[in-house]
Amino acid sequence: MLNFMTKRLFVAALVAFTVSVIAFSLLRLSGDLATMIAGEDASAQDIEIIREQYGLNKPYHLQYLDWLGDGVQGDLGESMFYPEEVTALIKDRLPNTLTLAGLGVLFAMGLAIPMGVIAALRPDSWVDRTALTIAVLGQALPGFWFALMLMFVFGLFLRWLPISGNETLAHFILPAISLGYYSTPAVMRLTRTGMLEVLNSDYIRTAHAKGLPTFVILFKHALRNAIIPVVALSSVQFGNMLGGSVVTETVFQIQGIGHLAWESISRNDFPVVQAVLLLVACFYIVLVLLGDLLNAWLDPRLRVT
Amino acid sequence: MPPSDTKVAGKGLGSLPDDDDRGVPSVESVMQPDAFTMFSRRVIGHRSFMVAAIIMITLIIVALFAPVLAPHDPLGQDLDRRLMPPVWNEAGSWTHPLGTDMMGRDYLSRLIYGARVSLIIGFSAMMISGVLGTVMGVCAGYFGGKVDMVITFLLTTRLTLPVIMVALALVAVVGGSLNTVILVLGFLLWDRFTVVMRSATMQIRNLDYIRAANAIGCSTRRIIFSEIMPNVLGSLLVIATFEIAHSILLEAALSFLGLGVQPPTPSWGLMVSEGKDYMLFDPYLVMLPGFAIFLLVLAINLLGDGARDILAPENRN
Question: What ipTM goes with this model?
């Protein structure tokens, strides 16, 4: 287990490093950032001042090391639009995104796990087929359009829920549904396969044979085992949702890091974009690692590879 | 051996008159039909695949013949005819069957041309990502060892990057256009090809016939192209359909966020974005293009699901 963990940690660190290089170089692909920041009618002198100010006159690798060195100490530079440090800006916005993604995962699990269990109990029944149909239809829905439809029906037409902003928890309901819906098919399929596998195993037959009530067998014996990979998957999905929050937050005007990323990308606010990219990627790395470790801890066979 | 042998024998026996009366199954029902008949039966018998194929063919025809089918110029503005409702509305007229948008452009024509944008982007991006991902996956699976390690690392890194954010940033840097979007998506979405091709190649790599090919001295190139590729083609086709759908959805999202295909190009995602401020009073502006994306992606996904069932019925789950 220890060996497995060190290996995984090493790979994770290497991936994080590579991602930081990518995040850094992504915005320098376009050529001269200083010219871009200065705007169209800036003089050569202005551009030179900007270049000096942001350290853009140094070679790329030194710029990168400066950025990384400061970043490790919690200083990711200053936003070019907001009069704030990037770190403060992100600290301010992150809770909204975490709330959104957290509720999204809850919604996905709350919908998908019961559906998966029912589908596994009655394979090929109408329940199973309905669940599958919902999954197939859901995968074809464009996220932003689904969000707008939710807004239209529950916000504008029925007037049940607020449609923009992030003041109360109610503001997060529609966004969480629109974000979480995409994870339901995957979670449902995994629950279904896991349950089918467990239900056919010997110890469940034994439990039946010794006369345990079906309810106890299902929830205490079967689901408990089938749910582990589902929890691991959900943690990965949570990571995906942080990235996917761009669309949802933009549609519902939630002041989270997804919205921040979109704003900053549109405005060439590269310190913020770099930081958000790196942050989301790091979250993902940690979540995947947790998922892997969770799986490996519970299933020793996985530790070998 | 003449292939018709069994058939002739089958016909002769099957024509015995009282086969069924004696409760003995007829020879036709026991006999396996030839591979092609079985295949076409599976295709035609697969209902969702057939429905999806019909939708897909229709949409492709619409996209191909857009200039003939579109009643108006998709870019032609007419500010006197802004926001005309569709024909099912009382105020609608057949001149603009699906109404006009806020610039007075015919909505039906824009939707028809939008099919072009989506299909071109979906297919082209898939071609790029498909080639990239397949090469990487097959190499990782075939060579193993260090090659596999490097490619797996690249794959892990790619999966770590939030696709939509990176795509947005790249498009912003390079400038939004049809070609940029195709390239960005093509270079971002190769992961699933690599994952599937890698494991498929790994499985095949250790089979006896590959060892045999190796033993008789076939070159690596020959083994990969004539022994391995034909056997992973099925999975490749299935992934390809899903990746077309994936690219179409992402293009729509990028265009919706203003960093994809640029106006006035009629992209469905862009149309939803342009229409969203008018959603309350003119919901068709948002409903129609969104539904078009949904329909196209649904058809492609069903084709993929169907192809998987038809090509490899044994690994349906």
Answer: 0.86
pLDDT, tens digit (0-9, with 9 covering 90-100), for A125-179: 888 888 888 888 888 889 899 989 888 888 878 888 877 777 787 888 889 999 9
Backbone angles phi, psi at B57, to 5 degrees: -60, -40
The pLDDT, as a whole number, for residue A160 is: 83
pLDDT, tens digit, 9 for 90 and up, residues B265-308: 889 999 998 888 888 788 888 889 999 999 999 999 999 888 88
- The SS3 assignment for B65 reads coil
**Residue A146: CA count within 13 A, CB half-sphere:** 21
Q: Which of A139, A266, A285 sits opposite B301 (nearest CB)?
A: A139
In a mutational test of the A interface, the residue from B161, B268, B317 whose CB has the highest number of chain A CBs within 10 Å is B161
Domain boundaries, chain A: 95-304
A195-202, Cβ contacts within 8 angstroms, sequence gap of 24 or more:
A195/A116, A195/A117, A195/A120, A195/A121, A195/A222, A195/A223, A195/A226, A196/A120, A196/A123, A197/A226, A198/A222, A198/A225, A198/A226, A199/A120, A199/A121
Cα separations in angstroms, A256 against A250, B182, B199: 9, 28, 38
List chain B residues with pLDDT less than 50: 1-16, 18-20, 316-317
CATH number for the domain whose boundaries are A95-304: 1.10.3720.10
Single pTM value for the model: 0.85
CATH of B42-68+107-315, one of 3.40.50.300, 2.60.120.260, 3.30.70.100, 1.10.3720.10: 1.10.3720.10
Between positions 207 and 246 of B, the ones with CB within 8 A of A are 245
Looking at beta carbons, which residues of chain A come within 8 Å of B317? 193
Please report, for chain B, the start and end positions of each structural domain, with discontinuous segments joined by +.
42-68+107-315
Percent of chain A that is helix, strand, coil (3-state, to 5): 80, 0, 20
B185–A contact, CB cutoff 8 A: no
Question: Looking at CA atoms only, how far is residue B258 from chain A in angstroms?
Answer: 9
Enter the tokens of residue B307.
């192809």
Look at the block and give the residue holding tokens 């058809």. B299
Block means of pLDDT (10 residues each) for chain A, 305 residues, are: 82 90 78 68 77 75 81 76 83 90 92 88 83 84 90 83 78 89 87 87 87 83 82 86 89 90 86 88 89 78 64
